Amino acid sequence: xxxxxxxWALSGGSAVAVGFARFGYALVLPSMxxxxxxxxxxxxxxxxxxxxxxxxxAALAIYFVARLGNxxxxxxxxxxxxLSVLASGLTHDFFWLSVFRFVSGLGGAGAFVCGGVLxxxxxxxxxxxxxxxxxxxxxxxxxxxxxxxxxxxAAVWPLAWIAMGAVCLPLSIAAILSVRAIAEPSSRQVRASxxxxxxxxxxxxxxxxxxxxxxxxxxxxxxxxxHASGTAGPAMIISVMWVLLGAMTLxxxxxxxxxxxxxxxxxxxxxxxxxxxxxxxxxxxxPNLAGIWLSAALVGSSVFMVPSxxxxxxxxxxxxxxxxxxxxxxxxxxxxxxxxxxxxxGWISDRAGSLSFGLAVSxxxxxxxxxLALRQKPLG
Length: 380
What we know:
about 80% helix
């Protein structure tokens, strides 16, 4: 594989772990709920169990990354995630769907954490490209799935999973082959200690980011169905929204390259969080098609830049053997926030009697995360 193509192949890991397995699920769930007659508790559980798998995967990476290495954990993560996406279309049994969603989160954490670390070996630009790869899955699912369900009904949701899994297969193979050209940054012989207390602004901001962003990604489709009006139908509105989100994610490396290059403080993370907060709040202030679609563009241009910024901070401030452990710790905190976020937003919305109120709170949470990230100073 040519060196110039390694990072693009590696970014398939982000496309599979996030674009298809996590964000694509948001488009499939309403049809699964309708066809399987799932109540809200069951539908929520399928989201929660995936987040629990992600949390466990990130926690295991803390323990195993020095022993097994980032490359091996990345490969296993890609295999587990791809197979679980395919398997989700092969059963109607709620127990097995829960198992596959858990495995998808477990594998996705390994692919996302270790893929980011391996991208760091290739440079700051490679980090941004890797995380923006999630936009490919978002774009493709947004372009196809809303129309699939509009034309053929909710009962075709297994086909959606199988189709996503079929696309994940070549992306996973390319990503797995790419890691052979990347040096392993972790080492059993070198002690991977790092000054975590001095990284607290970034670490806590990443936890709060997990709380805030996931509310938008979980509930925005439902909010659009409740509030959008006009000549465009729900399929058109949601499809354009998801395609814009994915397309802007793919363009994000061009937009953020100058700011991200070599910075050792929290400014890149804070800037990305500010744009994300603006995107999350925009449809609440401008509840029409322009507000919804511009919101998707802003969120797409920034949401994957937050993990890019955290990975860049780790790369530019810590010794290479500590990268894997530091990213696993950061991702575990993020995963806790991501697990709590949807339930918290739903609880707040139920109490207030308005989903808009819950989404507004999530935007405020993102602002707090932004302000905290800006307090992070270089470590050296």
